[in-house]
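Example (one chain per record):
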Amino acid sequence: MATIETAGRIEPRRSIFRSNATQTLLAFAGLIGIFIVFSLASPNFFTFENIIGILLATAVNGVLALGVTFIIITAGIDLSVGTVMTLSAVMTGVFITNWGMPIPLGVLAGLLTGTTAGLVNGLVISRMKVPPFIATLGMMMIARGLSLVISGVKPIYFNDTPIFRQIAMGSMVGSVIPGFNIPNAVLILFSAALVAAFILSKTVLGRYTVAIGSNEEATRLSGVNVANWKTAIYALGGAFSGLAGVLIASRLNSAQPALGAGYELDAIAAVVIGGTSLSGGEGTILGTIIGAFIISTLTNGLRILSVPQEWQMVVTGAIVILAVYLDIIRRGRK
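Predicted structure:
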């Protein structure tokens, strides 16, 4: 993808933003179409309770996908987000339950665990020149092993701190507007999305994220320390994994050390379906959120229609392939 240099800053051409808008619009149209189809197929789909269920199911995967968006825009990949999320949940449990620390300190521990894992990924990739696929695959196994070792292969429960569950399952909206018991996890997802959108569109980190994915060598030759910025991007992705770890621990009221495998695939699928190009240089936070909702809505609707889980995976996989194929066609035409 072409870039332009303005006042020492590398920025994408305006055509990229038009392309991103088109991809986001197509993804949103697809989401509306899915809602219409399932609403007509089952009267149980378009109900307030079921919509809340979809929102809640999207929260964790959506937060994970936010971090993956930055990484894929750089033309990278992160296969470790699922198990890093689990490790972050376990560390949160260790601080709060095992060590009796205050809840804010436990939440901070979860966030720092994810950020540290992302930082290690970034250093290995940018400094040691290990391909992102291999580096994050190794981190995926390391995080999974550490989760089992630290927890003693047993879940860590938060029964002694019931307020912890309110982080995800409480409802600030419901306390203000009776009857609208929207879980806090949904509010956290949208708040995290706003922060991610601001970082991507309004900060130097966001500009360099797009520039690195567009043309890493040109970005390096322009005087940008690509290694440092790439490390920061992976650390940011890890921070979102840490937040997802806190959310899933709060939602389940426990840290499950064997959980996490497969979440990275759903997160990557959400990013790709939302229009972020695997070739790098293009992507939006709004598109990622829409992609996450598409996956959750598909899963929910197919479950309501009693479609077997194995066929749900087939449908999701086919949609991911179609999304990538459309991106290839679009790039070919450009």
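Caption: The chain has a mean pLDDT of 90.
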